[in-house]
From TrEMBL:
InterPro entries: PI_transfer, PI_transfer_N, START-like_dom_sf. It comes from Meloidogyne incognita (Southern root-knot nematode worm). This is Phosphatidylinositol transfer protein. GO terms for molecular function: phosphatidylcholine binding; phosphatidylcholine transporter activity; phosphatidylinositol binding; phosphatidylinositol transfer activity. It comes from the Eukaryota. Residues 1-223 form the Phosphatidylinositol transfer protein N-terminal domain.
Length: 240
C-alpha cells in the first residue's frame, strides 16, 4: 500500500511482443516497470546493513497470461547480488495436484519446497490484522459472477476453479546473511500471496466483465492515485 513517501511508483505500462517466456510458449502481453519505495517495510536486519535511501526495489513484470514473470532488483545498491523472481502459471480446471507445473529440471525439483495456499483459510498464513470481513472469501458473494462464498471443502468441488502455481526464487549475496535473508524472504511470500488473492477474489465485482480498454483506463487512474498517495499521509500496508 502507498502513502507517506513510500509505496508504488509506476514508470512504464506498455504492450510487448517477441519476448519468449515459459520456454517460448508465450511471447506477447503487457510489460510494467515499477519502483517500490520501502524504507519502513523491510526487515530490521536489512535496515541495519543497508544505507538510508537504498531501499528502492525495481519491479519488471511481463504478463503473458496465463503465464506471468516478475523480477525484483535493487540496482542502486545491491546490483547483481540480489534478485527475487516470481513466475506464475495459471491452470484452468486444476485443484493444485499438478506435480511440476513449471516444468522444472530434476536438480531444482529436489530442492523445491511446495506450499499450498487456501485463500479461504484465515488461520494458516495471515496475521490477525490481515483478516477483515470485506476481504474474507468465506463470507463474500459476487453478485456479478455468482461466485462465493468459499466454505468447507470448496477446493474439492467448486466450479469453475483455477490454481495459480507460483515459483519463487530469491538470491541475496551477503557473507554471513545470505541463507538467513533468503529463508526469511521465502517465509513472507505465503502471507503476501494469500492476502493479495483474497483481495482479488473479494473485489471481483469491481473488475469482473471489464474490457481490456476499461482495464487500461483503470490502470491509468490507479497510477494517478498512487502518485498522489505517495506524496501525502503516512506509510501504510504490510510490514515484514
Amino acid at each position: 500500500e502507498t502513502g507517506g513517501g513510500e509505496g508504488v511508483e509506476v514508470l512504464v505500462n506498455q504492450q510487448f511482443d517477441d519476448i519468449p517466456l515459459f520456454n517460448g510458449k508465450y511471447t506477447s502481453g503487457q510489460y510494467t516497470h515499477k519502483i517500490y519505495h520501502l524504507e519502513s517495510k523491510v526487515p530490521s536486519i536489512v535496515k541495519a546493513i543497508l544505507p538510508k535511501g537504498s531501499m528502492a526495489i525495481h519491479e519488471h513484470a511481463w504478463n503473458a497470461y496465463p503465464y506471468c514473470k516478475t523480477e525484483l532488483t535493487n540496482p542502486d545498491y545491491m546490483k547483481d547480488n540480489f534478485f527475487v523472481r516470481i513466475e506464475t502459471i495459471h491452470l484452468d480446471n486444476d485443484r493444485g495436484h499438478t506435480k511440476n507445473a513449471h516444468h522444472l529440471p530434476d536438480n531444482i525439483l529436489r530442492n523445491r519446497e511446495v506450499v499450498h495456499i487456501d485463500i479461504a483459510n484465515d488461520k494458516e498464513f495471515l496475521y490477525s490484522s490481515d483478516i477483515v470481513d470485506e476481504t474474507s472469501p468465506s463470507k463474500f458473494h459476487s453478485s456479478k459472477a455468482d461466485r462465493g462464498p468459499l466454505r468447507g471443502s470448496w477446493r474439492k468441488n467448486i466450479q469453475p476453479v483455477m490454481c495459480a502455481y507460483k515459483l519463487v526464487t530469491i538470491y541475496f549475496k551477503w557473507f554471513g546473511l545470505q541463507n538467513m535473508v533468503e529463508m526469511f524472504g521465502h517465509k513472507q511470500y505465503p502471507r503476501l500471496f494469500c492476502k493479495f488473492h483474497r483481495e482479488v477474489f473479494c473485489w471481483m465485482d469491481e473488475w469482473y466483465g471489464l474490457t481490456l480498454v476499461e482495464i487500461r483506463e483503470l490502470e491509468e487512474q490507479t497510477k494517478r492515485e498512487l502518485d498522489e498517495a505517495r506524496k501525502s499521509g503516512k506509510p501504510r500496508g504490510m510490514t515484514a
